[in-house]
């Protein structure tokens, strides 16, 4: 979709998630050569399932929630992508997230296609029992799409190993046999992988350190700002701190904190436990949410939700490197501003691929019923992420394009080569 074809309610800087993905595809088509013939297949999800998810609430009433599961492309293998529970989940978002999974899996060379799912719900309003019933009903409703060799869900925003355990058990009960490989991100006791909980944040750190090396920045004493302090942001902050960097600013839904001499990520995480706020972290100052973007730093990690960096705040960013821990945090208009001011952006489809990479390791371990140590997992993850970064860096240098465009050149080439070789049936 070209900009002039956008719906009237969208502007260039207020694109919906799906429109952002379409623009990213349009930008890479000139680099695809003969494979551009197949590019239209990237602009159309393979299948979309929208389901009603009714459950009994604890008070005896029945509530209905809308759920989604989208397969964007499965040319290179089964669908792979998370499930999020969030009050703002919508079809455009899930379509885009599934498409970004296609690009992400191909960019790092995993044998998966792209998929994603979600339920429009605020899980904080549900009891544990209601959340379990919601998960099990949703799993049953999308059961015709998922399976160990069809589509393998994983945790995402507001879902966790317990939710994956419920999904695995529900699918297994419906199939009449235990199927550990139907989801990843499970508890270790149910076939989950060691190292999975830290994997996405660890991948952010690994790709950031590779980018810093190429920009001549030392890790020791580097200033890091993190937006979003869930699993990804908190893990990345902790690993950066453990390697001698200073986490100078953190932002989440409870507020924004700053400390010139560095914030202890473990203390910040403890402050947010049990409904606490970041502002309770010892030795920090609270600043305005808009001021977060202008904090002087070397590395900025947006690890919250989509469309956080826009044309309104991109020019305020002083970071030398932006490493996208979240999916789709930067609009195309903001991307252009950051490129013009010389800010290196490590795109989401590479930076946060650590999670799906270890999910792949988990899936392989489930099939073989042979499990690796955490050191083995981390070593394999580090090697794959560094190799993927190097490959994309070389493409970026060769074509004189951003790392995001380089990632799309590599990923789209791999996906469309598979599409061309498979042909059309019938």
In a few lines, what is going on in this structure?
This protein is an alpha/beta fold and 426 residues long. The protein contains twelve helices and twelve strands.
Per DSSP, the total helix count is 12
Poorly predicted segments: 6-11
Mean pLDDT across residues: 94
Helix content: 25-40%
- CATH hierarchy: architecture of the domain at 197-351: 3-Layer(aba) Sandwich
Specify the biggest β-sheet. Answer: 7 strands, mixed
> How big is the Rg?
21 Å
Side by side, the strands of the main sheet go: 9-8-7-6-10-11-12
Instruction: Give the overall shape, derived from the CA principal axes.
Output: globular
Structural class: alpha/beta
Question: What order do the SSEs take from the amino end to the carboxyl end, as H and E?
Answer: HEEEHEHEHHEHEEHEEEHEHHHH
CATH topology of the domain at 197-351: Rossmann fold
**Distance N terminus to C terminus?**
28 Å
Describe, in plain words, how this protein is organized in 3D:
The chain is α/β, with parallel strands linked by helices. Among the domains are: 45-177, Rossmann fold; 197-351, Rossmann fold (3-Layer(aba) Sandwich). 40% of the residues lie in helices and 17% in strands. It contains twelve helices and twelve strands. The strands form two sheets. It has a seven-stranded mixed sheet, sandwiched between helices. It has a five-stranded mixed sheet with strand order 1-2-4-3-5. Helix 2 (91-107) crosses helix 12 (403-422). It is globular and about 55 Å long. The protein starts with 16 loop residues before the first helix and ends with a helix.
């Amino acid at each position: 979709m070209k900009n002039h074809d956008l719906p009237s309610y969208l502007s260039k800087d207020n694109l919906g998630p799906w429109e952002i993905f379409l623009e990213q595809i349009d930008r890479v088509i000139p680099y695809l050569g003969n494979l551009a013939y197949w590019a239209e297949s990237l602009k159309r999800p393979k299948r979309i399932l929208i389901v009603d998810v009714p459950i009994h609430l604890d008070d005896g009433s029945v509530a209905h929630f809308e759920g989604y599961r989208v397969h964007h492309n499965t040319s290179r293998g089964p669908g792979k992508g998370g499930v999020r529970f969030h009050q703002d989940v919508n079809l455009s978002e899930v379509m885009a997230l599934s498409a970004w999974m296609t690009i992400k899996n191909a960019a790092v060379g995993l044998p998966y296609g792209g998929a994603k799912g979600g339920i429009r719900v605020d899980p904080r309003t549900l009891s544990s029992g209601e959340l379990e019933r919601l998960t099990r009903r949703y799993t049953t409703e999308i059961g015709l799409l998922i399976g160990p060799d069809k589509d393998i869900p994983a945790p995402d925003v507001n879902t966790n190993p317990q939710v994956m355990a419920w999904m695995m058990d529900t699918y297994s009960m419906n199939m009449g046999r235990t199927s550990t490989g139907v989801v990843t991100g499970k508890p270790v006791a149910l076939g989950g992988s060691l190292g999975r909980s830290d994997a996405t944040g660890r991948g952010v750190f690994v790709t950031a350190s590779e980018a810093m090396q190429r920009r001549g920045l030392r890790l020791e004493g580097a200033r890091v700002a993190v937006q979003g302090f869930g699993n990804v942001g908190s893990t990345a902050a902790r690993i950066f701190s453990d390697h001698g960097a200073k986490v100078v600013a953190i932002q989440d839904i409870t507020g924004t904190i700053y400390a010139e001499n560095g914030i202890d990520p473990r203390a910040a995480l403890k402050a947010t436990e049990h409904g606490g706020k970041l502002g309770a972290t010892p030795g920090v100052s609270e600043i305005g949410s808009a001021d977060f973007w202008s904090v002087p730093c070397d590395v900025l990690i947006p690890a919250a939700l989509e469309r956080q960096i826009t044309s309104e705040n991109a020019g305020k960013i002083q970071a030398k490197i932006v490493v996208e821990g979240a999916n789709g945090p930067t609009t195309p208009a903001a991307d252009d501003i950051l490129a013009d001011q010389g800010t290196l952006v490590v795109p989401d489809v590479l930076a946060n691929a650590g999670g799906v990479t270890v999910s792949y390791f988990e899936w392989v371990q489930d099939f073989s019923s042979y499990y690796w140590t955490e050191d083995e997992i981390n070593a394999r993850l580090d090697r794959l992420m560094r190799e993927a970064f190097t490959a994309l860096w070389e493409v970026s240098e060769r074509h004189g394009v951003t790392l995001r465009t380089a990632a799309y050149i590599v990923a789209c080439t791999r996906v469309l080569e598979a599409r061309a070789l498979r042909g059309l049936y019938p």
